[in-house]
Design goal:
mainly alpha; 2 domains; 1% strand
Length: 324
């Protein structure tokens, strides 16, 4: 009798694919956003990315040793966690913030569950949530930057999402037409975390990831549609299309939709579950943005939907062909 063994996710259906190769493609997809962040933030971005990646790799080795197992460094998952974590942090976070975030990401979000494929929550978001709650001052609005044309230095300024939440950004201060808004948000000149400064760079890497089938498009489309439609109903601007695009292109929505919410390990595996997962992340993101004290909500939305992923799998099991 033939024996079948069920392994942990991600489940591969191609012989020529491997976890290591998948992670290398994710790293490649992250490079456009990383390069833009380096151009904007210069040595600060290099320091944050290098510190997060090195700390995640070191923690992967350390916790594997503590569990009496060989460190699976060759699968490159620790590098991916470090890069995503670094790109979700502000440019001038003190050195201990990326170090602690990386330690929590691997030591709490990944290793205790058995390593890659067994973790329930996205490790990078676990680490970022911890430092966000513990070091709110250095992770807040004053930790972001805006590079002005012709300026020789970096000027600290809250992000548009922070200003909207604080009531400091009037409608007259916003770009007054959709074309101007898209130019600001996609050109890589608006302020935000390392990975948020250029929507165009995120789209280039994200579409490559989906084309290589390493990112689940249903999750991405569901999340973006939910954010856009709810944004259209808000009252930031009279033009609903403009308002929807404002919420869609500012903050961590694009980065989260392509690189965070699409984590194959913490996603549902059924098509229906993936649609519900993406829509749920988008809806919760807007709930946090509009009704909570936080200007951003992608991180908490992803973690909450990670917890619901097993339930979504259960309620969206496809009916076998021919079964009544």
């Amino acid at each position: 009798m033939e024996k079948f063994e069920v392994a942990s996710s991600p489940h591969l259906f191609r012989v020529n694919r491997s976890t290591s190769r998948m992670m290398l493609q994710v790293i490649l997809a992250l490079m456009p956003a990383a390069l833009v962040s380096i151009c904007v933030f210069r040595e600060y971005a290099i320091f944050q990315i290098a510190l997060c990646v090195l700390t995640c790799v070191a923690c992967e080795w350390l916790f594997s040793q503590l569990r009496g197992r060989r460190a699976p460094l060759e699968d490159n998952s620790a590098i991916v966690t470090g890069m995503i974590l670094a790109l979700s942090l502000p440019w001038n976070a003190p050195w201990y913030v990326p170090v602690i975030a990386s330690l929590i990401a691997i030591g709490v979000g990944k290793a205790p569950y058995g390593g890659l494929g067994f973790n329930i929550f996205n490790p990078a978001m676990v680490g970022r949530a911890f430092v966000m709650l513990c070091f709110a001052t250095v992770m807040g609005g004053g930790a972001y930057q805006l590079t002005e044309e012709g300026a020789s230095g970096i000027v600290s300024q809250p992000t548009p999402m922070v200003q909207i939440k604080a009531g400091e950004l009037a409608e007259t201060q916003l770009p007054q037409d959709t074309a101007s808004l898209l130019k600001v948000c996609f050109a890589g000149v608006h302020n935000g975390s390392l990975g948020e400064v250029s929507g165009l760079a995120i789209l280039i890497g994200g579409l490559y990831l989906i084309a290589r089938r390493n990112g689940e498009w249903r999750v991405t489309v569901g999340m973006l549609l939910a954010v856009f439609l709810i944004g259209m109903l808000s009252k930031i601007h009279q033009d609903p299309i403009y308002c929807g695009l404002f919420y869609l292109t500012n903050g961590a929505v694009l980065f989260g939709a392509f690189f965070i919410a699409t984590d194959p390990v913490t996603n549902p595996i059924t098509p229906g579950g993936q649609w519900l997962f993406g829509i749920g992340v988008g809806v919760l993101t807007m709930v946090f943005r509009l009704f909570s004290g936080y200007p951003e909500g992608v991180m908490f939305a992803v973690l909450l939907m990670n917890a619901l992923a097993p339930l979504l799998n259960h309620v969206t099991i496809p009916r076998p062909f021919g079964k009544a």
